[in-house]
Design brief:
- The complex is a heterodimer.
- The radius of gyration of chain A is 24 Å and the shape is globular.
- Chain A has a domain of 36 residues.
- Chain A is mostly helical.
- In chain A, helix 8 crosses helix 14 and helix 16 packs antiparallel against helix 17.
- Chain A has 24 helices and four strands.
- By secondary structure, chain B is of the alpha/beta class.
- Helix content of chain B is 31%, strand content 12%.
- In chain B, 59% of the residues are buried.
- The chains are: A mainly alpha, B alpha/beta.
- At the A-B interface, helix 11, helix 20, helix 22 and helix 23 of A face helix 4, strand 6, helix 6 and helix 7 of B.
């Protein structure tokens, strides 16, 4: 591949079929880090690329309201009230009040049509680092977290992103923190007097903040440290279907992203990994700031960034250089990302593409229209699956139910016959149904395909469909071999 | 809650049976087709053994877990009960075709899902020390292939090139790819990727339609293993055992997240039973989970990460039904780090016994080459006599 596409494959999503190629790639990457990120997409498969309409991008308060309505109507449906128990009413309720399909399509559109491809790759990395799995009650929040907690925070500090994602209602719900109460909290004291209520600490989020989001098990923290973190977190978050007024009364704050229930909080100073953390709302920011600048965090995430963008087995020198950028910039994500890109440009080996990254790249390279428009959500199409079904089938979706460690960047986790079969099948489906705009030969010329790749494509005969599958499933396009 | 009455006939051989651990090496090596099949159900998230097989005879159980212990358990004997979700499993127990091993764990005490999952699948001496899995290494030694019922190839099966996976695609607007095209693509790849595309080519010659729910996949796996040239091992994963909250429903300890997931496990075992047919007689199925959960409930009708749990075994190769345990007790002083059920049986020994029975491999070989632990105790006699 020529330099432009080699770099765009490794930490972008490939230049779209009709995009001009930049000459100076280093300058292009710097510009990409600052690129604006409008949510580009299509209204339907025959319209031009345009920005997603505002009404399909509700803010957090609206999302909470929709969730509340969805729950209320579901409840009526269960009780057979107000005609809500018909299939049509249930469908209308899901369509109007649940955001998953819309958010997932918007995410896919961004990745297919966006001109901020480098930021979108970084968004995928960080959204995966701060995994919020779909537990159904997180359905209306995952898309918001990706847009507002990750994409909008890519050029700030890691400390800000960590605090934002730890306090995001999606995370607080996914890892059970909304139920957690300090054992000496007023809430727990009340509950002990009553029979109908239970209140106590739930350490799920505290544990994963330490293990996955920051210092990792390499730090050698103890169960007491996990409990300490859980105590700092106790009180954060409320049920998403709580009325806004009740939520404010109970938890102060102005929206679900800063809801802190004093009565559920553990009183007193806490201790986490030797660090004293004050009581009250401000304690969490002390904790996340302490963790954000911890050596083990810097070590853990520098290695993870290298594994994602540079090599399955990054060298100590490579990781050290990212750590250095981290220290010198006080955890400024832009400086850190820039250093990762420097390493990636010079990387001597191939980097295997995640299934979703590969899929977006195939669509962009060929100019296919493989995903429906936002006006067509819910419409059945004989040939085009919903974005939800595509990503599920591919085995990788940020809206799937999964464990908090997210998807691995290690090639070994993706090497299986079924996984490879999906790539063949989707290449086939995109070619047959996606109305591709460039021929296989034009794509190969544009990207400067290696001789080896051209020979492989030629070996399968003259069928353009077979050639398309072969090109997209070649070692070069899958990121299996550097040629 | 009414108690289940199904199969209460004398289904436990011994009470809270103590297990005597002793190494009893047998010589001999697997040759040709192995004697049986082995299937592993991975329970992801850390299954609560104390609610799956509640030790009802332990006076501390209700003291520690009144709000979460299932009320409608089926009593197996004076000491152990069975969760009401496990209805098919209860029938198997009544027929001598299922056993449980309690207070058991892999030697891992740090309570991280991801380290724990890596260790129980890798089967090495510490998390992330192995690039292959214990079942994969065993199949390589025996020279026979296994199959995972999943989109990915789980770590547990890695290590033998003929191992395969199965998870049928459902992609609109695309047909089954032609085998000769896939063979050409395979030729353009190197090493592992070439092998994988060759497997895709072979797969495309068959046309198997199976629904993708765990029970249907288990039935398919059973059918495949029952064939003369089929795989001798299979792996299936059931998620969502990480019951920090709402493990039980408020006011109904027989319902909730754990109850729902145990129904899935029960259905998977039933699926295997149906699919295996006559091959059930030579089969062993075992569950695997990264850890058990805290003895005490937390404040959110759930439990936190713990240490020992229970292993469920089923198959015609078992010599009878029972709960094998060297019961550690539940009081504070008996708990691991004053919070978790203590492990008194190394679950690697149970896995080793299942490998010995199904693949005909020598215990010492399994201990040293698969689990890297030459002095791993042999518990074969307690399960297969």
């Amino acid at each position: 591949m020529n330099k432009q596409f080699r770099i765009a494959q490794r930490f972008g999503l490939m230049f779209r079929y009709d995009q001009d190629l930049p000459q100076d790639m280093e300058a292009w990457i710097e510009l990409q880090l600052q690129a604006p990120s409008p949510a580009l997409g299509i209204a339907n498969t025959s319209t031009e690329v345009a920005e997603w309409p505002d009404e399909l991008q509700p803010n957090l308060a609206k999302r909470a309201g929709m969730w509340r309505r969805n729950r209320a109507l579901e409840d009526q449906a269960r009780k057979g009230k107000n005609g809500q128990d018909t299939e049509a009413a249930r469908k209308a309720n899901r369509f109007e009040n649940l955001m998953r399909r819309k958010d997932e399509l918007k995410f896919v559109h961004r990745n297919v049509y966006g001109s901020d491809q480098v930021k979108l790759r970084l968004t995928a990395f960080w959204a995966n680092h701060f995994t919020i799995g779909n537990t159904f009650d997180t359905a209306n929040m995952i898309g918001h977290a990706i847009d507002e907690g990750i994409l909008a925070k890519l050029n700030g500090s890691f400390a800000d992103m960590l605090y934002g994602m730890t306090t995001h209602p999606g995370m607080l719900t996914y890892l059970d923190n909304i139920h957690s109460a300090g054992e000496r909290s007023e809430r727990a004291k009340d509950c002990r007097k009553r029979k109908d209520c239970q209140a106590g600490l739930n350490d799920n989020l505290g544990r994963e903040v330490l293990e996955l989001h920051t210092v990792s098990v390499a730090a050698g923290y103890s169960e007491d440290d996990i409990r300490g973190a859980a105590q700092v977190l106790a009180g954060w978050g409320v049920n998403f279907d709580e009325e806004l007024g009740d939520m404010r009364k109970k938890a102060g704050g102005t929206n679900h992203w800063n809801a802190y229930k004093k009565r559920w909080a553990e009183p007193g100073t806490k201790k986490v990994m030797g660090q004293k953390i004050s009581a009250g709302r401000g304690g969490l920011r002390q904790l996340t700031d302490f963790l954000a600048s911890h050596d083990h965090t810097i070590n853990h995430i520098s290695a993870k960034l290298c594994q994602h963008f540079v090599s399955d087995n990054p060298s100590t020198d490579q990781i050290e250089s990212v750590k250095l950028a981290w220290h010198q910039s006080n955890g400024d994500l832009q400086a850190i990302h820039t250093q990762v890109f420097k390493l990636a440009i010079d990387a001597p080996e191939a980097k295997f593409m995640w299934p979703m990254t590969w899929l977006f790249q195939v669509v962009r390279l060929s100019g296919a229209t493989y995903f429906k428009g936002w006006e067509e959500i819910g419409d059945y199409d004989d040939n085009l699956m919903s974005s939800k079904a595509v990503l599920e089938e591919l085995g990788q979706s940020f809206w799937s139910s999964r464990q908090p460690n997210g998807y691995s960047s290690d090639k070994a986790e993706w090497m299986s016959a079924e996984m490879f079969e999906r790539r063949v099948r989707f290449a086939d489906a995109i070619y047959k149904n996606g109305n591709t705009r460039l021929s296989v030969n034009k794509i190969m010329d544009r990207i400067g395909a290696a001789e080896q790749t051209r020979a492989l494509v030629a070996s399968v005969g003259a069928s353009p469909g077979d050639q398309f599958i072969t090109l997209m499933c070649s070692p070069e396009l899958m990121g299996l071999e550097y040629v | 809650m009414s108690k289940l009455t199904v199969g209460r006939r004398n289904i436990l051989k011994a009470g809270a049976a103590s297990l005597f651990l002793a190494g009893m090496p047998i010589t001999g090596f697997a040759k040709g087709k192995p004697p049986g099949s082995i299937s592993v159900i991975i329970l992801e998230g850390g299954m609560d053994g104390l609610s799956t097989i509640p030790p009802i005879g332990d006076p501390d159980l209700m003291r520690m877990r009144k709000t979460i212990s299932p009320e409608g358990y089926l009593p197996l004997n004076d000491f152990f009960g069975l969760h009401p979700s496990l209805k098919f499993y209860a029938q198997l127990m009544a027929r001598g075709h299922a056993s449980a091993v309690h207070a058991t764990a892999f030697p891992y005490t740090k309570r991280s899902h991801f380290e724990g999952q890596n260790l129980i699948e890798g089967g090495g001496l510490s998390p992330f020390s192995e690039k292959t899995g214990w079942l994969g290494r065993a199949l390589e030694l025996a020279g026979v292939a296994g199959r995972s019922l999943s989109l990915d190839m789980p770590l547990i099966l890695r290590g033998y090139r003929d191992n395969d996976n199965f998870y049928p695609a459902s992609i609109r607007g695309s047909g089954r790819p032609a085998a000769d095209l896939l063979e050409m693509i395979a030729m353009g790849h190197q090493m592992e990727a070439a092998q994988i595309f060759t497997k895709v080519a072979n797969k495309s010659k068959e046309n198997v339609q199976v629904p993708r729910d765990p029970a249907s996949l288990a039935k398919y796996a059973g059918q495949a293993m029952a064939q003369a040239d089929g795989p001798v091992a299979s792996v299936i994963r059931v998620e969502n055992f990480d019951t920090h909250a709402n493990q039980v429903e408020e006011g109904d300890t027989d319902s909730g997240r754990l109850a729902r997931q145990l129904v899935v496990v029960d259905d998977v075992i039933a699926g295997y039973r149906r699919g295996l047919g006559k091959a059930w007689d030579d089969a062993i199925i075992l569950t695997l989970t990264e850890f058990g959960r805290t003895v005490a409930g937390n404040g959110t009708l759930g439990t936190e990460h713990g240490y020992a749990s229970v292993g469920l075994l089923a198959g015609g190769t078992l010599s009878g039904s029972g709960v094998v345990a060297d019961w550690p007790g539940l009081s504070k002083k008996d708990q691991f780090e004053k919070r978790d059920l203590m492990a008194t049986i190394d679950y690697r020994s149970v896995c080793a016994a299942c490998l010995e029975k199904s693949l005909g491999l020598d215990h010492d070989l399994i201990a040293s080459q698969i689990f890297r632990q030459p002095d791993l105790p042999r518990v074969f006699e307690h399960l297969f006599a």
